Sequence to fold (392 residues):
Amino acid sequence: MHIGSVPLGGDAPVVVQSMTSTYTYDIDATVAQIRALAAKGCDVVRVATPDKRDTAALPAILEQSPVPIVADVHFHFERALEAIEAGIHKIRLNPGNITDRNQVDRVIRACRERGIPIRVGVNEGSIVERKDKETRAGEMSALSSDRHAHMIRLMVQKLEDYLRIFDENDFGDVVISAKSIDPRICIDAYRAISERFDFPLHLGVTHAGPPETGRIRSVSALAALLADGIGDTIRISYAADPIFEVEDGKELLCVLGMRNRDEPELIACPTCGRIEIDLIKLVAEVRRKLAAIKTPVKVAVMGCVVNGPGEAEGADVAVFAGKGKGIIYVQGEQTRTVSEADMLEALYEEAVAFAEKVERGEAQLSSGGVSIVPPDPLPRADGSIPLPVAKA
Ligand code: SF4
Fold:
């Protein structure tokens, strides 16, 4: 399956998605945000289309977008038809609010004619039946007895019911999702639907909150699922600038080894009672400076020579700080010792020089095999600790 030019499912790399927070009818603002998200590494962007003026803006947005666009459709199936007509790359439908069989059939037929996939996304917030009072009462009562188990059962059942329409239309270009605000429900729901259905899965924890709290909520579920091989596309959703969603989505895939980095990786010690410099400030400054480097150099900033060298193993460029000095290593070789005041600039210079060597083909990035022989931190016979950083 493809969303525009982006492959999805099977052996294709996991796709990072986000969603614009602009009014879609504001073409300039929406295109600017789509471009910013794409520049950060977002593969596919979703836009809200609640109104006819939103779908009317789609041709201009699609023409200027560097990445495929998904139309998020709720309640009004006409928005889906208009988006399809505009050339959208994918449609998202919510079984909780577009239920009329004839309407769903029409959207499916229009998508089939143009080879457009549809995501069927059930969501904890809209899963309970709204119209039929008896069904609603039954579902609410089941949920109140064991919310976790019944929510998962309900999600699978609603997907089964809705997907039957797609099956009867012989339409298989389907992506499915089952989002909850509770990461434990997400984990079990996605495990259940991955066993039950054979469609690509869009992973997400819904309404996770601001990045400061939503990060753990989202990543706890997504990491558990991705590590099990479940999930074909992810959206981390925050109550914040969607740039953070893309940054964290990409980082999650990188740390899980599912995406190659295209920028430096920073390793830093957590600091402890052995620390002798303002390492936290240094780490923040190093992070800011490294943003200028466009090669995935691995840089380590460590607070001492006791555990630092072992923890920094695999780093291309590393600094071990202590007693106002820093020893810099480049791929396991000690290159220089500098004062605390010069540490930031010296580390950055070494990182830039190494990145340039890599770009010229004169050096290779570490693939975890660089071993750093530490300066000897063991006590001498007289009990003194010969920290080379202090002596240099
Ligand atoms: S590297 Fe040194 S200072 Fe940093 S946490 Fe480890 S032992 Fe403590």
